[in-house]
């Protein structure tokens, strides 16, 4: 479920009802929810506000890279960030459990940093690490504790996307 669909479900509306609220057509909402089109940013922020949510904008452009695995990692972690925004408790729970289970095979500084980022109150910093391309975070992201947050079928779709990006 993407953010547009999430907002629509918060309001308990059909696509047609949600479209009317936003001043767009039902097919436009369908395209937004399928990811084939993006809503006007102002409309999205206004819609989020109507449902008691604040749209937090995080730069998410991928930095140019010739390394396909790095592109995939960036795309995957952007999706993890989206899921975190939708359900921080669930994502935090999965990642914390992974750290407890597999932390012994990760370098200690990475385990400490992920533990710090996953602590309550560090949501903004976690989103920055997940979304903002930064060569300093490449090693940290390579030891990501987010296995299981994104279903395998979706991971395969993202892998395909990284091949053409």
Structural class by secondary-structure content: mainly alpha
Beta-strand residue percentage? under 5%
Q: Please, what is the average pLDDT? A: 82
Largest sheet: none
* Total domain units: 2
- Total number of strands: 0
* Radius of gyration over all CA atoms, rounded: 17 Å
Q: Give the count of helical stretches.
A: 10
First and last CA, distance: 22 Å
The helix/strand order is: HHHHHHHHHH
Q: Low-confidence parts lasting 5 or more residues at pLDDT below 50? A: none
Question: What proportion of the residues is helical, as a percent range?
Answer: 55-70%
| Shape field | globular
What descriptive keywords fit this protein?
single chain, 165 residues, mainly alpha, 2 domains, 10 helices
What does this structure look like?
This protein is mainly α and 165 residues long. It folds into 2 domains: 3-50, no CATH class; 68-164, no CATH class. Helices cover 65% and strands 0% of the residues. The protein has helices at 3-10, 15-22, 26-34, 41-50, 68-86, 88-102, 108-118, 123-131, 138-142, 152-164. α5 crosses α10. The longest helix is centred in the middle third of the chain and has 19 residues, at 68-86. The protein starts with a helix and ends with a helix. The model has no long low-confidence stretch (mean pLDDT 82).
Give a nutshell description of this structure.
This protein is mainly α and 165 residues long. It has helices at residues 3-10, 15-22, 26-34, 41-50, 68-86, 88-102, 108-118, 123-131, 138-142, 152-164. The chain has two domains: 3-50, no CATH class; 68-164, no CATH class.
């Amino acid at each position: 479920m993407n953010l547009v669909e999430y907002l629509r479900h918060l309001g308990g509306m059909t696509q047609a009802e949600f479209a009317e609220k936003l001043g767009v057509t039902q097919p436009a909402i369908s395209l937004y929810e399928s990811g084939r089109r993006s809503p006007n940013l102002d409309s999205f922020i206004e819609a989020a506000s109507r449902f008691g949510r604040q749209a937090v904008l995080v730069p998410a452009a991928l930095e140019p890279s010739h390394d396909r695995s790095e592109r995939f990692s960036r795309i995957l972690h952007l999706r993890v960030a989206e899921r975190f925004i939708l359900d921080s408790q669930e994502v935090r729970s999965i990642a914390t459990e992974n750290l407890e289970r597999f932390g012994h095979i990760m370098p200690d500084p990475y385990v400490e940093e992920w533990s710090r980022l996953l602590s309550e109150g560090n949501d903004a910093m976690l989103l920055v690490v997940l979304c903002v391309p930064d060569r300093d975070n490449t090693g940290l992201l390579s030891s990501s504790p987010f296995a299981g947050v994104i279903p395998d079928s979706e991971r395969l779709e993202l892998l395909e996307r990284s091949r053409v990006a």
